[in-house]
């Protein structure tokens, strides 16, 4: 919550009355959000062009994009109230505090839906064993738990709730700085976990090294999300409760950057058919090789290899997008192992 600035802090703000970070906020939103929208659009165009039905991961990424739009709206409302300038210039301090809390809540929903989309995609792409699916569930539940915790922490960080925007009300507050740092650390941890999870399976592909590097590269682009999450964790320590409209700007900026990069990273592997068609290399996937895929399979990465033994086609169809997790290196998943 905002606190009353000291006389020294007020004097500092008056001396820097012309400071302005509004262009930084506008530029970040104007660049990042359209890129995220384009990535989601390309994802759906790829699904449509490949005649692949939309799955839960597609709708989850749409939800993530809508929550990110909510962050953009919060930024716009914050600008109207005086975000990007010092506290003494705020037009509506109570409204600004409410916007900050709303943005905290929306951010956690956005990040959860984006990560859930990636995990569900992994489940369909790398469905090779029950153990791997269990790991995905563990990571997903962990993300859900700390996201829900942070939502409640943001809303009830001070009691009564209206003391979050009215420092004159008698109140009790938790240490939000420590809580925000812990949640940000969890966020970074799960970013790396999601990034690393598919790497052993991708490395095991029986493909030329160059092609394996290209495939792994698509997934490793998620490393930019890790960088954004780490930097956001750093700038959280720069928050000042006496001047939140000014000190919160870097957090706002890197929140938008992190969410948009996460959306792009989640969509990029699914857009391969579009880029393959554009380069004239599409046509070796499961749809054109005569291999039939089971319901829920997803050949959008166009990595399917035609097994030398036609009888193996049905056996490895469930692998879906990564049909080239070689049939010599994988085994059929029995019905008892499926979740």
UniProtKB/TrEMBL annotation:
Pfam families (alphabetical): Fung_rhodopsin
GO cellular component: membrane
Polar residues: bias regions: 291-314
Chief location of this protein within or outside the cell: membrane
Membrane topology recorded in Swiss-Prot or TrEMBL: Multi-pass membrane protein
InterPro entries from the UniProt entry: Rhodopsin_dom_fungi, SAT4-like
Domain Rhodopsin: 42-277
Domain of life from the UniProt record: Eukaryota
UniProt region (Disordered), positions on chain: 283-314
Keyword terms of this UniProt record: Membrane, Transmembrane, Transmembrane helix
Entry's transmembrane regions: 25-46, 58-81, 101-122, 134-158, 178-203, 215-237, 249-268
Localization per record: Membrane
Membership in a protein family: Belongs to the SAT4 family.
The protein, known as: Rhodopsin domain-containing protein
Source organism (scientific name): Letharia columbiana
């Amino acid at each position: 919550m905002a606190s009353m600035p000291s006389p020294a802090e007020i004097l500092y703000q008056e001396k820097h009355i012309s400071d302005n970070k509004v262009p930084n906020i506008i530029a970040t939103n104007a660049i990042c959000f359209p890129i995220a929208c384009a990535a989601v659009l390309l994802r759906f165009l790829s699904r449509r062009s490949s005649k692949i039905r939309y799955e839960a991961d597609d709708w989850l990424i749409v939800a993530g994009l809508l929550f990110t739009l909510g962050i953009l709206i919060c930024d716009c409302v914050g600008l109207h109230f005086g975000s990007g300038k010092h506290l003494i210039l705020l037009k509506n301090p109570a409204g600004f505090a409410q916007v900050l809390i709303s943005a905290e809540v929306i951010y956690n929903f956005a990040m959860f839906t984006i990560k859930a989309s990636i995990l569900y995609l992994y489940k369909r792409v790398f469905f090779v064993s029950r153990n791997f699916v269990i790991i995905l569930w563990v990571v997903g539940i962990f993300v859900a738990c700390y996201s829900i915790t942070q939502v409640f922490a943001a809303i009830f960080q001070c009691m009564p709730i209206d003391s979050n925007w009215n420092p004159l009300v008698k109140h009790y507050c938790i240490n939000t700085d420590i809580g925000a740092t812990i949640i940000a650390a969890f966020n970074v941890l799960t970013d790396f976990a999601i990034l690393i999870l598919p790497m052993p399976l991708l490395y095991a592909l029986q493909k030329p090294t160059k092609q394996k590097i290209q495939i792994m590269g698509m997934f490793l682009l998620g490393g930019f999300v890790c960088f954004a999450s780490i930097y956001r964790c750093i700038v959280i320590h720069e928050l000042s409760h006496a001047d939140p409209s000014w000190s919160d700007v870097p957090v706002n900026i890197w929140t938008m950057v992190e969410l948009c990069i996460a959306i792009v990273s989640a969509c990029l592997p699914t857009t391969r058919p579009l880029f393959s068609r554009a380069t004239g290399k599409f046509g070796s996937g499961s749809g054109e090789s005569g291999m039939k895929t089971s319901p829920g399979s997803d050949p959008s990465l166009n990595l399917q290899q035609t097994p030398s033994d036609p009888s193996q086609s049905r056996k490895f169809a469930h692998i879906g997008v990564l049909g080239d997790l070689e049939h010599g290196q994988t085994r059929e998943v029995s019905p008892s192992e499926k979740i």
